[in-house]
Amino acid sequence: MSQPHPALSPRQRFLQERQRRQNMTFAVTIVIMLVLALLSALILTGIVSAPFGNSFSKAEKFATSGKVPCPPEKALPVDPASVKVQVLNTTSRQGIASDATEMLTAAGFAPAEPGNYSTEYAGTVEIDTGIAGVVDAYTVARFFPNSKVVLTDATDKSVTVLLGTFYDGALSADEIQQILKSTDALTAPAQCLPLSDDDLELIANGGQLGAQSGQSGQSGETPESGAPEEAATEESAS
């Protein structure tokens, strides 16, 4: 016959109840931590999407003035004769803008007279244009290796080519013909920013919205800054 349990004193009952509550608290805490750890692992591996912050983490940045825009997806080069382009020499090297202009002429463009710019661009080639001229600019960029297209505030489709410190010179006749024979879509450079839907619509409409709002008459911008206000109409040593 088992011995009856001795009656607990009030203090013993208090300590026993406190221990029971502590054990329950620890158990619940451990379960919650395990669930959170499992959920975090699922979110990090992409199996489960986060229930909050999606709009912030997925916010897409679009190209603005001074940035490198991506060409529209699957966009093809335009007819060179339709492109309004001018070449400016930003360096002290003589004749390079004239040579580049002659190269564009040989490729079917009808460029404006070459010119000089007072501030040297410390790069290879920068090609400036407004939103409406992005496809035109990338069409021109094919003839300037290692060039980059930079978006400006221009409202027309004019394209300005800024020859910089590391410009290597005009392409050969064979290289020009090879580019002209290519039927590939325009290539988006690394780190370019996409255009917004409104910008893409403007391009699809042939830049008509920009034309209606008035043409600025500026041929481009200084490297990632403002318009080349001091550009000469003719190259001094062509």
From TrEMBL:
Stretches that traverse the bilayer: 26-48
Presence of the UniProt keyword Transmembrane helix in the record: yes
Compositionally biased tracts (Low complexity): 210-230
Disordered, as annotated region: 205-238
UniProt cross-references to Pfam families, sorted A to Z: LytR_C (PF13399)
Chain ranges of the LytR/CpsA/Psr regulator C-terminal domain: 82-167
The entry's keywords: Membrane, Transmembrane, Transmembrane helix
Domain of life: Bacteria
Protein's name in the database: LytR/CpsA/Psr regulator C-terminal domain-containing protein
Species in which this protein is naturally found: Schaalia turicensis ACS-279-V-Col4
Lineage: Bacteria, Bacillati, Actinomycetota, Actinomycetes, Actinomycetales
